[in-house]
Amino acid sequence: MSVVPPSRRARASLVAVALILAAPFAGAPAAAQQPQGVPVQVSKPIVRGLVEQTEFSGRFEAVESVSVRARVGGYLSAIHFTDGGIVKAGDLLFTIDRRPYEASVAQAEAAVASARTNLDFARGDFER
Predict the structure, then answer these.
(1) 116 domain-assigned
(2) Domain of residue 101, residue span
(3) Residue 21 placed within a domain
(4) In a domain, 1, yes or no
(5) Number of domains forming the structure of the chain
(6) Coil, strand or helix: which one is 44?
(7) Alpha-helical regions (H) of 27-98
């Protein structure tokens, strides 16, 4: 095993480390001068009331909830409650638009009238 001589950069690093380690033992100047103080103005703090305010972000969830599903399809014409309000059993919640259902009833009544007319015609034809 051969010993490789240290390079210049390594020697400079060793010297720098040695100087840094020896600096605390070199001794401080005998009479260190204290810096002079700078005059400043002092004022008393202002005393007033403080309102503590804290903001939180979060989600609220109801203690009890109910799913409401319509028995028939249609468009809502009115909503009879306010969101988050108390609702009792039997209270009216929604009103569904009546026009499509009224049209269906009129169509069914017309079909019944047509069937009765056909029946009367068939009875008259049968009696002849």
Answers:
(1) yes
(2) 76-127
(3) no
(4) no
(5) 1
(6) coil
(7) none
- 55-111: per-residue pLDDT in tens? 888 888 888 887 888 888 889 999 998 888 888 888 998 999 999 999 999 999 999
Dist. CA 99–CA 86, nearest whole Å? 30
Does some domain include residue 106? yes
Instruction: Report pLDDT digits (tens) over 107-127.
Output: 999 999 999 999 999 999 999
| Two tokens, residue 121 | 């015609």
3-state secondary structure labels for all residues of 78-124: EECCCCCCCCCCCCCCEEECCHHHHHHHHHHHHHHHHHHHHHHHHHH
By three-state DSSP, how is residue 128 classified? coil
pLDDT for res 87: 86
pTM above 0.85, yes or no: no
Which residues share a beta bridge with 90?
A: none
